[in-house]
Design goal:
Distance between the termini: 42 Å
Strand content: under 5%
Radius of gyration: 18 Å
Number of helices: 11
Number of domains: 1
Length: 253
């Protein structure tokens, strides 16, 4: 049976049984990342909680790429490499959880476990995914990119200035997708969301990214202490997972 037939079979299964068919090789460029997210989106039922996050992630990424055309970064290589390493942590979680939930980063468990609930608004799924990806994965991605490129995550650096510039592009992109999730997507109206509006107001992508940089600075200082680093990462994973569960409260029937 070919891959196309296998994927077609997956799409006809009940939502809880959907298994993604993704290439084994990691995306190596931002274009590869976009293609992989498009493949994920094509295989998931629209109401799947992972699809809600993936759709926001894909839309924001495409919008940032569009707005970033001609934008001058001081260290474009750092920006692009960080984006790829960052996205691959999400794809790793998608691969790890179906095979062995215990091997998957804990921060992703709330989204993966609640993905089929009809009592959770689309924006909540999207924010829960962004919580895991930015508050946890971005910390690891920053650290890994700095190690790979032999850079220190210093604030007085081209890398931090580029990181901050991206916040503006992300804010503009987020403005495009938030109304879609809050007001139109799948017929979920403001009057139905209830407390979900409060969750949206409490969550800020810019604050989350700034926090990720601070956490990466701390992690960088711990790099010579293996056991302390492991405890730090475990605590971070658990804390972000706890926040994710708070974002995914179910509205009354």
């Amino acid at each position: 049976m070919g891959l196309r037939d296998w994927v077609s079979g997956v799409l006809t299964r009940p939502q809880g049984e959907v298994t993604l068919a993704l290439p084994q090789e990691k995306p190596a460029t931002i274009e590869d990342v976009v293609t992989r997210m498009q493949l994920v989106q094509a295989q998931l039922p629209p109401r799947d909680g992972i699809a809600q996050f993936n759709k926001m992630y894909l839309t924001v990424t495409e919008e940032v790429l569009r707005k970033g055309v001609g934008h001058e970064f001081e260290d474009k290589e750092f920006v692009e490499r960080l984006d790829v390493i960052f996205a691959n942590l999400y794809f790793k979680a998608l691969d790890d959880y179906p095979r062995d939930p215990q091997a998957c980063a804990r921060c992703w468990s709330p989204l993966f476990q609640s993905r089929g609930s009809s009592r959770i608004a689309p924006i909540q799924f999207a924010l829960a995914g962004m919580n895991a990806h930015i508050n946890h994965d971005l910390v690891l991605a920053l650290n890994a990119t700095c190690r790979e490129m032999q850079l220190d995550p210093e604030r007085d650096s081209a890398q931090y200035r580029d990181f901050s510039r991206i916040n503006k592009l992300l804010a503009e992109a987020q403005e495009k997708v938030e109304p879609w999730f809050k007001e139109g997507f799948l017929g979920i109206l403001d009057r139905v969301l209830g407390q979900a509006d409060e969750a949206v107001e409490m969550w800020s992508m810019e604050r989350a990214r700034e926090n990720a940089w601070v956490q990466s600075e701390a992690l960088w200082l711990l790099r010579a202490h293996e056991q302390l680093t492991a405890r730090f990462l475990l605590a971070l994973d658990r804390t972000v997972g706890f926040a994710g569960r708070g974002l995914l409260f179910e509205r009354p029937l």
